[in-house]
Design brief:
CATH architecture: 3-Layer(aba) Sandwich
Strand order of the largest sheet: 2-1-3-4-5
Distance between the termini: 28 Å
Radius of gyration: 13 Å
Strand content: 15-25%
Oligomer: single chain
Shape: globular
Number of helices: 5
Structural class: alpha/beta
Order of helices and strands: EHEHHEHEHE
C-alpha cells in the first residue's frame, strides 16, 4: 500500500480508516510539525524527504505547490466530507487506481 502523509486539516478518523485499509499513514502531528503553523511549503518538503504522498484539504495552496514543485511523491487534494469512512474509501480508490502517484496531483471530491 501507499506511504501517505496527512496535513493538519485531515481528520484523524480518515487517517485511522486509511490505516485499516492497509496504508502506511503518518500525520503532521506524529512528525512533530503539528500545531506550529508550519508553512505549506515546509509540509510538502517533509513529505518529499520522507517519500510520502501528501493528503490535504487545502486544495488551493497545494495545487499551486504541485505546479511549482516537480518531483514530489504525489499530492492528493480532497474536498471536505464529514463521512470520514467514505472520504478514506475514495482516497484509497484513487491511490489504488494510480500505480505511481509520484509527481501527480490527484483530486478526491465529495460525492453529491
Amino acid at each position: 500500500m501507499a506511504k501517505l502523509y496527512t496535513n493538519e486539516n485531515v481528520p484523524l478518523p480518515v487517517v485511522e480508516e486509511l490505516r485499516l485499509l492497509g496504508h502506511d499513514v503518518m500525520t503532521v502531528q506524529e512528525s512533530g510539525l503539528g500545531g506550529q503553523s508550519v508553512p505549506d511549503r515546509t509540509v510538502l518538503r517533509f513529505a518529499i524527504d520522507q517519500g510520502r504522498c501528501l493528503i490535504t484539504l487545502n486544495r488551493r495552496h497545494f495545487v499551486k505547490l504541485h505546479e511549482e514543485t516537480p518531483g514530489h511523491p504525489g499530492i492528493i487534494v480532497c474536498t471536505t466530507d464529514h463521512d470520514f469512512v467514505a472520504l478514506a474509501t475514495r482516497i484509497d480508490a484513487a491511490v489504488r487506481g494510480n500505480p505511481s502517484v509520484a509527481g501527480t496531483l490527484i483530486r478526491v471530491n465529495r460525492q453529491h
